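Hey team,

Sharing the Lipopolysaccharide assembly protein A domain-containing protein run so nobody has to redo it. Sequence (119 residues) first:
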Amino acid sequence: MRYIRYAILAAIAVVLIVLALANRASVTLNTLPDGLAEIPGMGLLSYSVELPLFAVGFGGVLAGLLLGFVWEWVREHKHRAEVSRKQSEVRKLERELRRNKARQNEGKDEVLALLDEAG
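Structure output:
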């Protein structure tokens, strides 16, 4: 199973390297379109960067993955909160059960108390 995973990772690496080599041309990445950048006050937000095309593509994929991970983490917050509430309730009930068993076995012999706890 480990070798299959390594083979798949190697195949993905080869595909990514081939894509990177095939898309080495430079592209200009602008934060604002030219018409919007000419509006007074908007020049502060206008940036241009020249990057290889594969870097833009890989960056987009990485940004999408990060956005998806954050979205799922936020979406599952209610489930994690519910599990936490239920775990604290279970701990509270276990403490209460131990106290009740201790009160029940207060006057008994130690051996009989241990047998009651086990059974």
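The first strand starts at residue 26 and ends at 30.

Ping me if you want the raw files.
A.
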